[in-house]
Amino acid sequence: MADKEKFQGYDMSFYNKIMLKIEELKNKGQWFQNQVSKQLGYSSGSALSGYLGGYCVVNVIEMESRLAKYFTTLEVMDSKVQIDYVEINATEFIYEAVDSARVYKDISVVSGGAGSSKSATLKKYKVEKGFCIYIQLFESNVGKLLDMITIEIGLETKTNNTLKTSNIINFFKQNPNYVLIIDEFELSKDSPKIMKKIREINENGEIGIVLAGTKFLGLQISQVREDLEQLRSRVGVFVDLSLDAPYCIEDAEKILKTKWANISPELVMKFFNMSQNNIRTLIKLMIRVTEEMSDTKKTSPEESMFVSSSSKILRTKHKTSLL
Hints:
By secondary structure, the chain is of the alpha/beta class. It has 3 domains: about 70 residues; about 160 residues, P-loop containing nucleotide triphosphate hydrolases (Rossmann fold, 3-Layer(aba) Sandwich), CATH 3.40.50; about 70 residues. Strand 3, helix 9 and strand 4 form a beta-alpha-beta unit. Helix 5 crosses helix 6, helix 14 runs parallel beside helix 16 and helix 15 packs across helix 16.
């Protein structure tokens, strides 16, 4: 419950509704506080953490206005066409990598190209198995890494990096069943500092860690400087999705049949070829075709629909949050 003194003069009913909504999203594995903070327009997660924790550091009315717009956007998105997650060839490999890190308290590396379903599978793992801290490290620096982990485990971010590190290590020591997943992990000029910090958390917190990134991540880690050899030696499992579990026509068929159980092998092949070896593109195609079917009152997909949808999608470069 929020500190009533900090929120004095404000209607607490909205705050209570927000907390219930967040709990609902957490149970579905759809609440990632660092991402939400950015979508609300705040440069760090401390503003949202402060509001939720009752020590609000920003204008409460402004925060609640932004949250109201955010949840309205979620409702609009929920009303749109959704494609359910389906286990594919890569799922088993990714799950095994995370399980290995959890059990053996070492580091697993998962690398794969864009649209290989890494993020979707890791988020699904969090929902299914629990005891998992998942972050996406879009900004590669030690401070951001510590802030994101601190926010996800529900601790105060207004401290120095040394205290944050100590708090994180103590949390994992007290919660030995957890695993830490760092998605969108890429090496940069600050990588030596980041990797030393990851090694420190892994070793002193006795916590399994998963690093997930592009298809080049494994090569980059294998070439780290000699002074990081001890971190590299802690990598127990390395999964390269392009080699171990490449996206294949069987995967495409499983995904397509979640929407159209009786889709023909010919259409499966066409969808697969047009997806250009990218699951994210396949999902986009399915959504576009489903929308066109709705507009034309069709009950099954036709070749003309996805040929048209494909030409539009492959000409347009934009991001999607589906995978």
